[in-house]
Automatic annotation (TrEMBL):
Key words, A-Z: Coiled coil, Metal-binding, Zinc, Zinc-finger
MF-aspect GO terms: zinc ion binding
GRF-type domain ranges (all copies): 24-65
Designated name of the protein: GRF-type domain-containing protein
């Protein structure tokens, strides 16, 4: 699951700060994001997309509170598990795609063999008709 999707899931629609319009020195409108780092899991913030580039250092936490130790542990474990499951899903999707390609190859080979067989029968029939005349 991408960070953008996790951000949408974690945003509380009733949070008044969600609609706050913050702009950096570039004038870019900033959206609230969610940190998934080890030290600040699920903590919300605003940051310029060019943070540390172009000397733009705009960064602001949504809150001043730290996440409690238990929540940090649980959130990190859940985020790690989501990543593991996404990797398993990607592996399955890759295998399914590979199997589909293999099935298409087999089908094309069977179609080519059938075509060759039909052509051979047609040639035999033409030769038989020529001999019969």
């Amino acid at each position: 699951m991408s960070n953008a999707m996790l951000n949408r899931i974690c945003n509380d629609e009733n949070d008044p700060l969600l609609r706050v319009k913050l702009r950096c020195k570039h004038g870019d409108l900033l959206s609230m994001q969610t940190s998934w780092s080890e030290h600040n899991p699920a903590r919300r913030f605003w940051s310029c997309s060019r943070y540390r580039e172009d000397a733009c250092n705009f960064f602001r936490w949504r809150d001043r509170e730290d996440v409690d130790i238990r929540s940090k542990y649980v959130i990190q474990r859940l985020a790690k598990r989501i990543k593991e499951l996404e990797e398993v899903l990607a592996s399955y999707e890759s295998r399914v795609e590979s199997n589909q390609v293999d099935q298409m190859k087999v089908q094309r080979k069977e179609e080519a063999q059938y075509k060759e067989m039909v052509e051979a029968q047609w040639k035999e029939e033409v030769q038989w008709k020529k001999k019969a005349q």
